Amino acid sequence: MYLTSKTYVKPEMKISDIVRENPSILLVLEHFGIDDVLKDKTVSRLCSEYDIEELLFIAVCNLYNGFNVGDTSELKPLSIPVIIKFLNNSHHYYLNEKYPEITDYIRKLNASGQLKEMQLVDAFFNEYFEEVMEHLDYEEKTAFPYFTGLFEKRQSSTRDKFSATHYQNHHSDIESKLEDLKNLLLQHIQIKNQGVVKRKLLSSLFELEFDLKIHSLIEEQILIPLVLSIENKITK
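^ that's the sequence the OP posted. Answer follows.
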């Protein structure tokens, strides 16, 4: 799952062909809650069956394929709960899959009697992931309920305390610190006789960083502009 340019996704394309070219699209389907036999279904048909706006689905797929998000100004408010579902599912992926996977690789290297530096790697990653969990907790308990309330027109009492602008100002690129950890492992720590585990650890870090980057782009370039447009209409 690495950010490489692939084919630009369009409505008439078959989902199975898109997945063959870029297997990370399987994660897109999972985050959208799509668990189906793809057969010869096109993007358009799949979106229709799952009540997902084509524009949203295509924008997300193209992010995973290495393209810019494009113009999503025509997205409708009904996409808000779909985006939130996607982001919540990605949270589960980080917490229940990637974090345990990465910590397991680090502990295997520690258990094999590797350098003291690996203990620093362990401490660094755990401290980093605590920040990630704080970020995800803020989204799930503060931002997402507000966005859902806005969509369901229950935002009147919370608007003064919270808004998309508050969220935008609070938002941070939670993937950026992983660069330091990757550089440490790639350039400065020599691990003998555990090359396979080190490779798996680095691959998993790259995968986590990639998906966190997409996560941030969806929030910054799709969700926040959509919510701001709704807020602006309310204040007029």
